[in-house]
Design brief:
The complex is a heterodimer of chains A (418) and B (299).
Chain A (H helix, E strand, L loop, with lengths): L1 H14 L3 H27 L14 H18 L1 H6 L5 H26 L22 H28 L6 H27 L12 H27 L6 H32 L4 H8 L9 H19 L1 H4 L2 H22 L2 H4 L14 H30 L5 H4 L3 H11 L1
Helix pairs in contact in A: 2-15, 3-5, 3-7, 3-8, 3-13, 5-6, 5-15, 6-7, 7-8, 8-9, 8-13, 9-11, 11-13
Chain B lengths: L8 H21 L1 H9 L8 H19 L4 E3 L9 E6 L8 H9 L12 E6 L23 E6 L8 H5 L5 E3 L5 E3 L9 H5 L5 E3 L14 E3 L11 E3 L4 H4 L6 H5 L5 E5 L6 H8 L2 E2 L11 E4 L3
Parallel strand pairs in B: 1-8, 2-12
Antiparallel strand pairs in B: 2-10, 3-4, 5-6, 7-9, 11-12
Classes of the chains: A mainly alpha (418), B alpha+beta (299).
C-alpha cells in the first residue's frame, strides 16, 4: 500500500512544477518524437539509411556510446576528490553523480541497440539464454562491466534515497564499501571500452597503448563539466549547499585532466608524425584530409579549438573563478570531448579502410535524429530522477507524507517551489 | 521486377503505405515461422532433427519466394581436409570475372550491392601498397600498362580475429578451415568487420535483393543461402561447391588460371606443389593472422 502511495507521490512530483520545468519537459518530448521518426525509418529500412557502409562500419552511434561511457565513469570518479577534500555535501554529490551515471549507462545501452542490425536478437547476448562469448570478446566484457556498474550504482542510490525517505540513518558500513568499489568499476568500464578498440591490430589508429589512458583523461574533462553546471543549478533552486571553493576545486582538477589529456595527445602525435610510417594516414585524414576528402577536418579542428579555449579558461585563475567564463569553459570542453569521441575517434579508425580505400563518412540525418531521441530521453529520465531525489533529499518528502492527510498540500507546496 | 523509380513524395508515401500493409499481412500470415526463427538457437547447438526441420522450412520458404526448387544442405567438413588457396599475381589481369562469378554463385545482394572479392589495382613501381591502390579502376581494357592486380577476399586465417571478437559466437572456423557465419544468430554488431584486416566481411545494410531469374538454388546453410537484412556475410571458399568436391566459382571462372585451390593435407595436391616449388607470400603477415590464402609469382 505504501509502495503504491509512494509511486503516486513520485508521479505527482514529476508532473508538477514551474512553467520553466514544463517548458523543458515539453521541449524534450518534442525532440524525442522528432528523433523517434528517424529511428522508425531505420527500423523499417535497415541501417542503410545511415551513412555507414562496409568501409566505415561503425560511426556516430558507437562514438556516442563511447562518449557516454566516459560520462558514466567520470561522474562517479568525482566522488574521489569529494572524499579527499572532505567536501561537506558529499552524500549529495554521490547521489547526483550516480544518478547521472545511471542515465548515462542506460543511454550507452540504447546506442548499442540502435547500432545493431538485429535488435530483436539482443537476447543472444544474455548469459544463460543466449551465448555470451566471454572472455574472448571484449564486447562481452564491456556488456558485463556496464551492467554490473549499472546495478551497483542503482543499489547505492536507491538505498540512500530509501533511507532518506524513511528517515533512517543510512549504514556507512554498507554504503562506503559500495561507493569505494564503484570507483575502480568506473575506471574499469572506460578502460574496457578503450580496449574494445585497442584490441584490433588491423586498425592501427586505435592500436596504441595510450588509447585507454587518453580515454580516462578525456572523461575526467567532460563528465565533471556536466556536474559543475548541475551543482550550480541545484544550488540556486534547492537547499543544496556547495561552496564556491568546492566548485573551483573541481575546475582545478579538470585542468589537471585536460593537461594530461593534452600531453598524451602530443605524445601520440609526435610518435606518429616523427616516425612517419604509413599509419600516419589516419591522423592525416583526421587533421588535414587526404586528397579532396576534407569532410572530417572541420570536426577535428573545432574539437581542438574548443578544447584549447576551455583549457585556457580553466587554467587562468581569474577566469576559473568567474562563473560566467567557468561555465563557458565547461560547455566548450564538453563539446570538444563530445566531437572527439563522437566523430574524431571512430571515423579515422576506418578511413582509409583496411585495403587503403577512402569512403567519406559523416552522420546522416537519421543518425542525428536517432541520437537526439536517445539524448533527450536520457535527459528526461535524468530530470525526473533528479526531481525525485531533490524532493526526498532537500524538501523532506518522506514516509510521513504518505499517511498524513496534509500530504497533498505539502506536495503542492514542494512542486510549486520548484 | 523491382527497379529504382523516382517517385514523387506522394506516390512514395502511397507505395510505402501499401508496402507496410502487405508486409504486415505477410508477417501475420507466417507469424509462426518468424516466432520460430526468433527463438532459433545457435546452429552449433542444434540437434540433427532440429537442423533438418529448419532446413526443410527454409527450402519451402525460398522455393515459394523465388519460384525455383531450392536445396539447402548442412554438409559438414570431411575428415582429412583443410582447404588452401593460392593466387598467381603474375597472371591476374584484373578482369573482375571472379567478382561476378562469386556474386552469382553465392547469391549476394545486387541492390544494395555486395561483393566478396575486391580487386585492387596497384602501381608496379610501388609493389603491394594498399594506400596507393584503387578498387574503382575502370579502363576500356585491362591490364593497364604499369599496373598489376591484387584480388582480396576472405583469407580464411588460421588465427582469425573476426571469430574471436564476436560477442555471441555467431561466426567460427570449421574443421576444414572455412570461417562461416550463422546468419540466424548474428546480431549485426559489426565488431567482426572492425576486426578483419582484409575488409572481407560485408554487412546487409538493407534488405538484400536478388532477381528471381538470377538466384542460385543449390545452397549451403552456412554459405550461399539467401541472407536477411542486418547480418554479416563473407566468402566461404564456396562452401556448397567445395564440400561437393568442386572448385570455388572464382577458381573455375578465371580466364588466365591465376587461381589455385586444393587440400593442404594432401601431399599430391596442386596447392602443396605451389607451396613447395614457388615462393609464396601472405597479406599483412605482421598481424599474425596466418592466412590459408597465399599469393605467389608463377612466372
Amino acid at each position: 500500500m505504501n509502495f503504491f502511495r509512494f509511486v503516486r507521490g513520485v508521479f505527482k512530483i514529476i508532473t508538477k512544477g514551474s512553467s520553466a520545468y514544463y517548458a523543458w519537459i515539453t521541449f524534450l518530448i518534442l525532440l524525442i518524437v522528432w528523433g523517434g521518426f528517424g529511428y522508425a525509418n531505420q527500423l523499417a529500412h535497415g541501417l542503410i539509411v545511415t551513412h555507414m557502409r562496409d568501409s566505415v562500419s561503425w560511426g556516430f552511434y558507437i562514438g556516442n556510446f563511447t562518449f557516454l561511457v566516459g560520462v558514466a565513469a567520470a561522474s562517479v570518479m568525482l566522488v574521489i576528490p569529494a572524499y579527499v577534500y572532505h567536501w561537506k555535501p558529499i552524500k549529495e554529490i554521490v547521489i547526483f553523480g550516480e544518478l547521472l551515471a545511471i542515465c548515462a549507462v542506460i543511454m550507452c545501452l540504447c546506442f548499442i541497440i540502435v547500432d545493431i542490425g538485429n535488435p530483436l536478437r539482443f537476447w543472444h547476448m544474455l548469459p544463460g539464454i543466449g551465448i555470451l562469448n566471454f572472455p574472448s570478446s571484449l564486447l562481452s566484457w564491456d556488456f558485463f562491466v556496464l551492467n554490473s556498474y549499472f546495478i551497483l550504482n542503482l543499489i547505492i542510490v536507491v538505498y540512500l534515497l530509501y533511507c532518506h525517505f524513511y528517515k533512517k540513518e543510512y549504514k556507512v558500513s554498507f554504503v562506503r564499501p559500495l561507493v569505494l568499489f564503484s570507483i575502480p568499476m568506473a575506471i574499469a568500464i572506460h578502460t574496457v571500452t578503450a580496449f574494445l578498440f585497442n584490441a584490433l591490430p588491423g586498425r592501427p589508429f586505435w592500436n596504441s597503448a595510450l588509447l585507454a589512458p587518453r580515454f580516462l583523461a578525456s572523461a575526467f574533462c567532460s563528465g565533471p563539466a556536466i556536474l559543475l553546471i548541475l551543482f550550480q543549478i541545484l544550488r540556486k533552486i534547492t537547499k543544496f549547499e556547495i561552496k564556491d571553493e568546492a566548485i573551483w576545486r573541481i575546475a582545478e582538477l579538470m585542468v589537471y585532466a585536460m593537461f594530461i589529456y593534452l600531453f598524451f595527445t602530443v605524445a601520440e602525435l609526435f610518435k606518429e608524425f616523427y616516425s612517419g610510417t604509413e599509419n600516419i594516414l589516419y591522423w592525416k585524414y583526421l587533421l588535414f584530409g587526404i586528397g579532396k576528402n576534407h569532410e572530417i577536418v572541420v570536426y577535428s579542428w573545432s574539437s581542438i579549438i574548443m578544447g584549447s579555449v576551455a583549457f585556457l579558461l580553466f587554467l587562468i585563475p581569474s577566469t576559473r573563478k568567474n562563473f560566467l567564463t567557468l561555465n563557458i569553459g565547461a560547455v566548450l570542453i564538453y563539446g570538444s570531448v563530445y566531437i572527439e569521441k563522437g566523430i574524431a575517434l571512430i571515423v579515422p579508425g576506418f578511413t582509409p579502410d583496411t585495403l587503403g580505400q577512402i569512403y567519406v563518412y559523416t552522420p546522416s540525418i537519421t543518425e542525428v535524429k536517432t541520437a537526439v531521441m536517445i539524448f533527450s530521453s536520457g535527459f528526461l529520465l535524468f530530470t525526473f530522477l533528479s526531481k525525485i531525489a531533490i524532493a526526498i533529499v532537500f524538501e523532506d518528502y518522506c514516509i510521513d507524507d504518505l499517511s498524513s492527510k496534509k500530504r497533498e498540500d505539502k506536495l503542492k507546496e514542494i512542486t510549486i517551489a520548484m | 521486377m523491382k527497379k529504382p523509380v523516382n517517385y514523387s513524395g506522394r506516390r512514395k508515401f502511397l507505395k510505402n503505405l501499401s508496402l507496410f500493409a502487405v508486409g504486415s499481412l505477410a508477417l501475420s500470415g507466417c507469424g509462426q515461422v518468424t516466432m520460430k526463427e526468433f527463438l532459433q538457437k545457435n546452429f552449433r547447438t542444434l540437434s540433427k532433427k532440429e537442423k533438418d526441420d529448419i532446413i526443410k522450412a527454409l527450402e519451402k520458404k525460398y522455393t515459394a519466394k523465388y519460384g525455383k526448387e531450392f536445396h539447402v544442405t548442412d554438409e559438414p567438413a570431411a575428415d582429412g581436409v583443410e582447404f588452401g588457396y593460392a593466387l598467381d599475381l603474375s597472371r591476374c589481369i584484373g578482369c573482375r570475372r571472379c567478382v561476378y562469378a562469386c556474386v552469382k554463385e553465392n547469391n549476394q545482394s545486387r541492390d544494395p550491392q555486395i561483393q566478396y572479392i575486391q580487386v585492387l589495382q596497384m602501381e608496379k613501381e610501388k609493389g603491394i601498397d594498399f594506400a596507393h591502390s584503387d578498387v574503382h579502376y575502370n579502363p576500356e581494357l585491362v591490364p593497364e600498362e604499369g599496373y598489376f592486380y591484387v584480388p582480396v577476399q576472405c583469407q580464411q586465417c588460421r588465427n582469425p580475429q573476426c571469430t574471436e571478437v564476436c560477442p555471441v559466437k555467431a561466426t567460427w572456423q570449421e574443421p576444414d578451415g572455412v570461417v562461416v557465419v550463422d546468419y540466424n544468430w548474428c546480431i549485426g554488431c559489426r565488431y567482426c568487420m572492425a576486426a578483419c584486416p582484409y575488409g572481407a566481411r560485408h554487412f546487409n545494410w538493407g534488405e538484400p535483393y536478388i532477381p528471381a531469374a538470377e538466384i542460385n538454388p543449390e545452397t549451403h546453410y552456412l554459405g550461399n543461402r539467401p541472407r536477411m537484412k542486418g547480418v554479416v556475410e563473407k566468402c566461404t571458399f564456396c562452401i556448397k561447391r567445395v564440400r561437393d568436391g568442386k572448385y570455388p566459382a572464382c577458381v573455375e571462372i578465371c580466364p588466365v588460371g591465376a587461381r589455385k585451390f586444393g587440400n593442404l593435407l594432401d601431399p599430391e595436391s596442386e596447392i602443396r606443389y605451389i607451396l613447395a616449388n614457388k615462393r609464396v607470400l601472405v597479406l599483412k603477415q605482421e598481424l599474425n593472422t596466418q592466412p590459408r590464402f597465399y599469393y605467389f609469382f608463377g612466372v
